[in-house]
Amino acid sequence: GENVEQHPSTLSVQEGDSAVIKCTYSDSASNYFPWYKQELGKRPQLIIDIRSNVGEKKDQRIAVTLNKTAKHFSLHITETQPEDSAVYFCAASIIWGGGATNKLIFGTGTLLAVQP
Amino acid sequence: AAGVIQSPRHLIKEKRETATLKCYPIPRHDTVYWYQQGPGQDPQFLISFYEKMQSDKGSIPDRFSAQQFSDYHSELNMSSLELGDSALYFCASKGGLAGGSEQFFGPGTRLTVL
Questions:
Q1: CB contact under 8 A, A107 and B42
Q2: CA B54 to CA B38: how far, in whole Å?
Q3: Please, are residues B46 and B66 in contact by the beta-carbon 8 Å criterion?
Q4: Contacts of A83 (CB under 8 A, 6+ apart)
Q5: Which of A32, A113, B32, B49 has the highest CB neighbour count under 10 A?
Q6: Nearest CA in chain B to A3
Q7: Dist. CA B15–CA B110, nearest whole Å
């Protein structure tokens, strides 16, 4: 079945450094790749997403890159701050022509700790 | 802006009891998804509804059932509860054709089975 692998499972960086989280998906039909930030006991919050017709997207300190051929996508956070500390999940889904969106298949998560 | 509402926020049940979780999507959203997140795990898709019809089914046990009502709210019914059902249950909703791709998550219901 569909599967999304995510690495690393934990990541510790110094404040101001960059953090990179990588995901690989198995379903070649996937064309929508959101990233979620989740704090302990809270809901997942969308931080950035990318569709398969775009190779890169950036929003301030956060960027996502997609390599559709290799079925890889990555999250890049620059100038990390202590408040970036959380669990980050990648996900893959399919957007159909009519706008309907399939279920999200999540990666296993990355616990990011930003040390002050 | 209105968000997804879930009730109750916390629920404690005994083994073999039943539980009903409710989800009220963002107004004018026509699709509802249910996810289960165990401790330290990623969210797992259970079931989804589009325009009150089941649209997809994931790893939902036969002991669970769900439906979407005419006002678009959804309920997840869980029977013969087991210890392993203890988890955070999230409902997410998505807008119609012009609503974009994002699934908006509710605050979750924390179910504890003793």
A1: yes
A2: 24
A3: yes
A4: A114
A5: B32
A6: B44
A7: 15
pLDDT band, residue B2 (cuts 50/70/90): confident
Per the CB < 8 Å rule, is B43 touching A44? yes
pLDDT along chain A (116 residues), means of 10: 93 98 96 96 96 91 96 97 97 81 93 96
B7 has which bridge partners? B22
Nearest one of B113, B104, B114 to B35, comparing CA atoms: B104
Q: Show which residues on chain A lie within 8 Å of chain B, measured between beta carbons.
A: 32, 34, 41-46, 49, 51, 89, 93, 95, 98-109
Q: Please tell me the distance in Å from A103's CA to the nearest CA on chain B.
A: 7
B45-80 confidence digits (pLDDT tens):
999 998 899 999 998 999 999 999 999 999 999 999
Q: Are strands A86-92 and A110-115 parallel, antiparallel or unpaired?
A: antiparallel
User: B42 to chain A nearest CA, in Å?
Assistant: 5
- Scan for tokens 């802006």, then name that residue: B1
The Cα B4–Cα B90 span in angstroms is 10
Q: Give the Cα separation of B15 and B23 in Å (integer).
A: 23
Chain A residue with Cα closest to B29:
A100
